[in-house]
Design a protein that fits this description.
Low-confidence stretches: 29-37, 85-96
Number of strands: 25
Largest sheet: 6 strands, antiparallel, barrel
Helix content: 10-25%
Radius of gyration: 46 Å
CATH superfamily of the domain at 315-412: PDZ domain
Strand order of the largest sheet: 5-6-7-10-9-8
Distance between the termini: 136 Å
Strand content: 35-45%
């Protein structure tokens, strides 16, 4: 390798102790050009490497800070959600806070009424006739009283009650009303395990939690509980019956599952109070979750008569009717103008009946009772039964192209 004189800068050999040009003494530690260049390159490389490492470290730190920031934000969101949930409130679009107080269980309400529910089996001449559910609503010194549907015990000569304990007890039919579909049975007072509390359906609200207890299908499923909500109040539906024809009833609607065998069982609110008597279910292949119950007030308003075996008094005017769109109208040669689109047509008038005395005639079209419009024969009966025996009502009648008003004093029905 070449060496350079530190004093004059001329080249010297490795063996020279003095510079041949200037005579200066040659120091042992001389840096040759290649080593100096290599050293400088090495320093530059180290510096470049250090700069790269610093930038990588800085970039890594930024990523760590970003990740930590994201984690902090997530924790804040989770904390906020947890705080809202712990307060049991939700905020809707109108920014109103709604407290949620209902628990996930209705076990206490069920316990309150469960043992008062019974299985009802009716028979005639020793052969099973019908079965359903019922509930004990009253007890005195001698008897316990059970409410059920009239169609469950209709035409029977023997009724057996099965308690939730499995004990069978003979019951006696006391009274019933086919139109409201309510019947009362009685058993010995010492056989009563529990009495159901009677509530008030008029104080209920659509959306309230309700449940049923009964025996769907057969005795194997006795004590089945189904839960839902009150879907509708004072819903008027059309009912078909072999003995009563087609008529209308005010009912409570629920989406709690009601099946054959539930008839006569209680519809119960969240406080364990009976607010209805499950009676029927609208069942088609297209519709699910539409069950119906008789408002408990309807039954309780007439329960005293039923307990004493008295016939329910229904107002009566003495006419047979058919609907305005019935083909019989054309057979009778009845013609209407465009103003008469709803009503019920009088087919026959019973002699000496309230209708006969009021001047109602065959082929008259009844369009209204008082201020309430009549759409068909079922609606006419529904409106009529809101009145009492002895009341005087005003019927609007379409006759010979003109509307007339007739006063009718209601008599007593034999049904």
């Amino acid at each position: 390798m070449k060496k350079m004189c530190e004093k004059c800068g001329n080249e010297i050999s490795n063996d020279d102790k003095f510079c041949r040009t200037c005579g200066a003494k040659v120091e042992k530690k001389q840096i040759n050009l290649d080593e100096k260049t290599e050293l400088n390159d090495s320093k530059k490389k180290v510096k470049t490497d250090n700069n790269h490492k610093f930038k990588e470290k800085l970039k890594s730190n930024k990523n760590i800070i970003f990740i930590i920031g994201i984690l902090i934000i997530c924790l804040c969101i989770l904390f906020a959600c947890f705080t809202l949930k712990s307060k049991n409130s939700v905020i809707y679009g109108d920014h109103k806070n709604v407290s949620i107080t209902e628990t996930n269980t209705i076990s206490e309400a069920i316990d309150k009424v469960y043992d008062a529910v019974v299985y009802v089996e009716s028979s005639r001449n020793g052969r099973a006739l019908s079965s359903g559910s019922g509930f004990i609503y009253k007890k005195d010194n001698e008897y316990g009283y059970i409410m059920t549907n009239y169609h469950v015990v209709e035409n029977s000569d023997s009724v057996t009650i099965t308690m939730m304990s499995g004990d069978d007890v003979k019951a006696t039919f006391v009274g019933g009303d086919a139109y409201s579909d309510v019947a009362v049975l009685k058993i010995s007072a010492d056989k009563v395990p529990e009495i159901a509390s009677i509530g008030d359906s008029t104080k209920s609200k659509v959306g309230d939690t309700v449940f049923t207890i009964g025996t769907p299908i057969d005795k194997e499923y006795m004590g089945t509980v189904t839960k839902g909500i009150l879907s509708n109040k004072a819903k008027t539906i059309t009912v078909s019956s072999e003995n009563n024809g087609t008529y209308k009833m005010d009912v409570l609607q629920t989406d709690a599952s009601i099946n054959p065998g539930n008839s006569g069982g209680p519809l119960v609110n969240i406080n364990g109070e009976v607010i209805g008597i499950t009676s029927m279910k609208l069942v088609t292949t297209e519709i699910e979750g539409m069950g119906f119950a008789i408002p408990i007030e309807v039954a309780m308003n007439n329960v005293e008569n039923l307990e004493n075996g008295k016939t329910t008094e229904r107002p009566f005017i003495g006419v047979s009717l058919y609907d305005l769109d019935n083909i019989m109208m054309y057979r009778y040669g009845i013609k209407t103008d465009d103003t008469v689109t709803e009503g019920t047509v009088v087919a026959e008038v019973e002699k000496n009946s309230p209708a006969d005395k009021a001047g109602i005639k065959s082929k008259d079209i009844i369009t209204a009772v008082g201020d309430e419009k009549v759409s068909d024969s079922a609606s006419f009966q529904y409106i009529l039964y809101k009145y009492s025996v002895g009341d005087t009502i005003t019927l609007k009648v379409y006759r010979n192209g003109k509307e007339e008003e007739l006063k009718v004093k209601l008599g007593k029905s034999d049904n």
